[in-house]
Amino acid sequence: MTSATRPRARRRALTGALATLGLSVGMIMTTNAPTASAATWPTPNGSQGTSSTISVSGTKDYGMKRFYGTGSLAGDGQEEGQDPIFKLADGAVLKNVILGAPAADGIHCQGSCTLQNVWWEDVGEDAATFRGGTGATYHVIGGGAKKAADKVFQHNGGGTLNISNFAVQEFKTLYRSCGDCSTQYTRKVNLNTIDVTGTGTTARLVGINVNRNDVATLRGITIRNDAGRKVVPCQKYNNNTAVGSGPDSKNCLYSTSDITYR
């Protein structure tokens, strides 16, 4: 975890059984994208604790099993430097898995990766961190995350992150391009068909570094429970200094028709 937002440590408890799986898998980016339907959270098919990071290469399908941290992976706050539950090698695909609590630092993608139908019941330090190089491409397809005291997705490496058919609740920032990493990149993020539930407090869908020429594209965003418009679709930074928000023709690529409030 590295970003401009302030850490918040808090206690977490395992969530109970959830409703059956809902979000469908869609295209990574389309024009005139449909609005997102409300998410139905999945019921875990068993639970397994782990005290050491699980390495994934190739494709791994866990059939909706829930994993949670124990021992050295039992952290549930915003402390820096926590290890992840899963570490994905370049090109790995992780699918049909639920991360329970505590979730430590979630998932690390060391290069290009795909997270398909992955759900976070109670985000730890971050849900996932993307650490590949300039040419890396990351896909988050389906799934959802909630109870993120800070960020959901942290982009520390280079490349492009595509997030589609994803649900997010009780969060501060869905995506953050690292503002203070020792090696910096120009990063891209594409959001398509995202279901957002606001809490009445300030939150951000994306935070990008305009001084690094980052680009965020938003399509088919549905925001619920946000009568006060507290959810900022695109927050602009110069590294860790906020410098405005809203659509433009260079960095924050979306229009009012791409955001639906319900």
From TrEMBL:
It holds the Pfam family Pectate_lyase. Its EC number is 4.2.2.2. Residues 36-55 are annotated as: Disordered. Its main location: secreted. GO terms for biological process: pectin catabolic process. Keywords: Calcium, Lyase, Secreted, Signal. The keyword Membrane does not apply. It catalyses: Eliminative cleavage of (1->4)-alpha-D-galacturonan to give oligosaccharides with 4-deoxy-alpha-D-galact-4-enuronosyl groups at their non-reducing ends. Gene3D superfamilies: Single-stranded right-handed beta-helix, Pectin lyase-like (2.160.20.10). It is found in: Secreted. Catalyzes the depolymerization of both polygalacturonate and pectins of methyl esterification degree from 22 to 89%, with an endo mode of action. In contrast to the majority of pectate lyases, displays high activity on highly methylated pectins. This is Pectate lyase. It comes from Streptomyces caelestis.
